[in-house]
Sequence to fold (302 residues):
Amino acid sequence: MTQRLAMLRILVFGYAAVWTIARTPHLLDTIDLAPRRFDGIGPLWWLGEPAPALAIIAAAVLTPIACGAAALGRRYRLSSLGAVVGFLFLTTYRNSWGQIFHTENLVALHMGVLAVVPAAVARWSTEKSEWPLHKSETSADHEVLSSAVVKALSVLTVGAYFVAGAAKLRISGLGWIDGDVLRHQIAFDNARKELLGDPTAPFGALMLRNSWTLAPAAVAAIAVELAAPLALVGRRAAWIWTGMAVLFHFAILAVMVIVFPYHLLGIALAPLLPIERLGTSVAAWHCRFRRHSTRLPPTGGS
Fold:
């Protein structure tokens, strides 16, 4: 499990670094928005007015640096804490301007857990014999702790899905199952996108024209979410449920053009799977590449 924790640290903080860089232009756009539109939420509930422009710029610059350092395990206590605080500030600040997104909630939760444990005990190494641990750092205590952390991350993942399914039933009741609520969601989302000039989902219109598909789709969606805890039962159950979850997100993308990149890339589901094999494969490929490159004859010269 220490190996899996090492891969999770790299994937989660690496994703946060890339996300922050990709979203920086949008985050900086908030500097020019009318102050009356700002309403601090969540961790920023106390903020009565927009943050200074310098604070936004500093957070946008420093957060991906901290995330990258945490992914590599460098000065981990400081870098992971800075990464979590910066990521949480930027995502919450963006959500305080009128439209609340929830696509980054699970990322922040995973980062928070990784930041409070010694997740940098496993360091990346390109040597197959050492990957991903330096031998001097392995211990039974580290393995036990790593196993507990991976299980905590797994519980957060399945918990997020289960809460989403329970919320559907709490808000819509059994009316969700007949597909009528889903029909309104697909229609409203695509109509709004068309009015704003954003890309719409052709499969959304197709489903609305074939209304018989809505009820099965609604049942399948809530079944995937409520069945999430079953992924904790065993490895086979985890593989089956994660496959269903990935298909679920591709279906959302197809009918509403709503992207959950953390989930579609499989990082949200990674704690449930033996992703340490990925690192082993990368290390093995690197070793083969190095051996092959040393055998190549020198070129040039006479």
The two ends are 53 Å apart (CA to CA). Confidence is low (pLDDT under 50) at residues 124-137. DSSP finds eleven helices and no strands in the chain. Residues 169 and 279 are 40 Å apart (CA to CA).
